[in-house]
Recover the amino acids of this structure.
């Protein structure tokens, strides 16, 4: 395992921790962002080691980072709006959160 | 002819831009532009229908041979999906003209709607996984915003939940994609298919990631938690597009393209698909049975019906694939019809609680009759379209030796009749509550799409041999490229 793979895996784990276990909406958003960065790192790593061609994977990772940022921006807006208008900041307060 | 492919992406994109720039002040102008945009998209899709259904393959490329170039390709499977997107979005845009008056900023709504159509067309036309991913992301972003469109607490909560789960799904897709490139050295569907399915063993981890991503996007049980919220809270034309078109394009279409490459029938992954499909059918149907909200019931029904499509794909024989594609088209038609009907009822009566409605057949005859046609179709009454597709899937499952799957399909069909009887009886039959005595039929622009969709349900039911021969069989051949 390269250093990049280890670092990316750590980022993914921290991100998943944020998404799954945190209650605060903004912390969940931060978790998603970390997850996106970790996945991008992993993609670059996979390309470097096994195919011997880095630029394609780097390109894919770049697209992933851009896509991830766009989603995170929208998520932040949604979370801020939920807090400002409806005073919801904790996922447990979400009335509709039922399977 | 190949120039039509970029046009299919740029027409909705430009329509979105034009509406954003020019129609902010005038709702009427935005109505006209959005409907013109979706109509032109449908026209473009029809213009390539002949050659594509004949087995021809069109492709268009910008940026040379690099795997990161923008390369679009279309075959008979893409054609079928293009038609589903175009018909579905045209119906939704016509319906929106009256329905969306209840919301503010209609022009922005149309911009998001056209961006969603753009994204879905990119998914369908993308010649490799990267292009497909870009389309998924564009469509998903527009879709998150559309779910939150009402800005009430429910809208924002549903959208936030959808955004988190949708993004985790996207991350799985990207991760799977990156690892797959590492192993296979290519991301193009054609090259992957030509590389043969023998690589399956080495592709186990990427395949698992891709499957999780697609399952989150297509809301298979147990990844369905976001769907009932998102699909029931969104404005009705958006619900119709989400349930009828969107989840098929971003979830199932990717699965179809990769079916014979990584999820080869007969292998481990196809068994997983079979089990997930069966569980989706039963869990979706049983959960629908206990719902009291019209749109929530329809949302759970979507999970169940998607299970049938997945079951057909997992069985993987040509007959089963025909059944799966046919059921996908049928579900697009009757689910849009149902969501339009539910939207009309909600708009005219102010509620979508089944317990507070009843006897609306006398007050809203068009909505009542079209909804009854949808009921016959979804519950599989001959000669409606839903009967043939479910029958084909069940027969194909028995033929392939998956008797258990066929039994699950048959039980699901019975439960479907059960919850839709509750829906029809609670909303359109029985006694009319005093409070609803003054309810009137919805405006023409809302019931016209319902009539067209209901007519399509009957027409496909009667002309199914023709439909299977001209559109579905070429599509199945295109899907089985790598087999």
């Amino acid at each position: 395992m390269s250093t990049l793979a280890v670092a990316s895996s750590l980022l993914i784990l921290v991100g998943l921790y944020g998404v799954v276990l945190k209650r605060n909406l903004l912390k969940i958003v931060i978790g998603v962002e970390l997850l996106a960065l970790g996945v991008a790192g992993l993609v670059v790593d996979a390309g470097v080691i096994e195919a011997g061609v880095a630029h394609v994977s780097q390109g894919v990772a770049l697209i992933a980072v851009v896509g991830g940022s766009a989603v995170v921006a929208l998520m932040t807006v949604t979370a801020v709006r939920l807090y400002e208008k409806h005073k919801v900041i904790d996922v447990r307060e979400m009335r509709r959160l039922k399977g | 002819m190949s120039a039509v492919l970029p046009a299919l992406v740029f027409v909705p994109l430009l329509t979105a831009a034009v509406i954003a720039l020019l129609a902010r002040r005038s709702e009427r102008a935005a109505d006209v532009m959005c409907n013109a945009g979706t109509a032109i998209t449908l026209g473009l899709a029809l213009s390539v229908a002949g050659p594509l259904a004949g087995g021809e393959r069109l492709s268009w490329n910008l940026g040379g041979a690099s795997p990161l170039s923008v390369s679009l390709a279309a075959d008979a499977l893409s054609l079928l999906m293009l038609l589903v997107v175009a018909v579905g979005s045209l119906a939704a845009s016509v319906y929106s003209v009256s329905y969306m008056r209840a919301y503010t900023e209609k022009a922005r709504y149309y911009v998001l709607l056209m961006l969603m159509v753009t994204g879905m067309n990119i998914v369908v036309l993308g010649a490799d996984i990267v292009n497909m991913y870009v389309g998924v992301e564009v469509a998903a972003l527009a879709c998150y915003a559309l779910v939150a469109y009402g800005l009430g607490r429910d809208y924002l909560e549903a959208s936030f939940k959808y955004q988190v789960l949708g993004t985790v799904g996207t991350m799985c897709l990207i991760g799977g994609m990156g690892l797959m490139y590492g192993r296979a050295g290519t991301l193009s569907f054609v090259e992957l298919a030509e590389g043969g399915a023998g690589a399956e063993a080495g592709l186990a981890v990427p395949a698992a990631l891709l499957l999780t991503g697609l399952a989150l996007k297509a809301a298979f049980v147990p990844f369905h938690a976001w769907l009932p919220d998102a699909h029931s809270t969104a404005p009705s034309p958006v619900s119709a597009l989400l349930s009828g078109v969107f989840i098929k394009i971003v979830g199932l279409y990717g699965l179809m393209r990769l079916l014979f490459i990584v999820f080869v029938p007969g292998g481990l992954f196809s068994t997983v698909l079979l089990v997930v499909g069966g569980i989706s059918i039963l869990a979706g149907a049983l959960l629908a049975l206990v719902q009291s909200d019209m749109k929530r019931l329809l949302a759970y029904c979507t999970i169940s019906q998607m299970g049938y499509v997945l079951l057909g794909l997992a069985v993987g024989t040509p007959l089963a694939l025909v059944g799966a594609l046919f059921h996908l088209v049928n579900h697009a038609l009757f689910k849009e019809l149902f969501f339009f009907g539910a939207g009309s009822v909600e708009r005219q009566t102010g509620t979508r609680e089944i317990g507070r409605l009843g006897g609306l057949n006398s007050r809203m005859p068009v909505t009542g009759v079209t909804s009854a046609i949808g009921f016959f179709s979804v519950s599989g009454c001959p000669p409606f379209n839903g009967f043939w597709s479910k029958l084909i899937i069940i027969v194909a499952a028995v033929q392939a030796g998956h008797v258990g799957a066929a039994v699950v399909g048959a039980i699901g069909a019975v439960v479907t009749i059960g919850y839709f009887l509750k829906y029809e009886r609670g909303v359109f039959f029985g006694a009319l509550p005093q409070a609803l005595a003054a309810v009137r039929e919805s405006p023409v622009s809302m019931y016209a799409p319902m009539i067209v969709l209901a007519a399509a349900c009957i027409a496909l039911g009667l002309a199914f041999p023709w439909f299977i021969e001209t559109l579905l069989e070429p599509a199945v051949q295109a899907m089985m490229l790598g087999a």
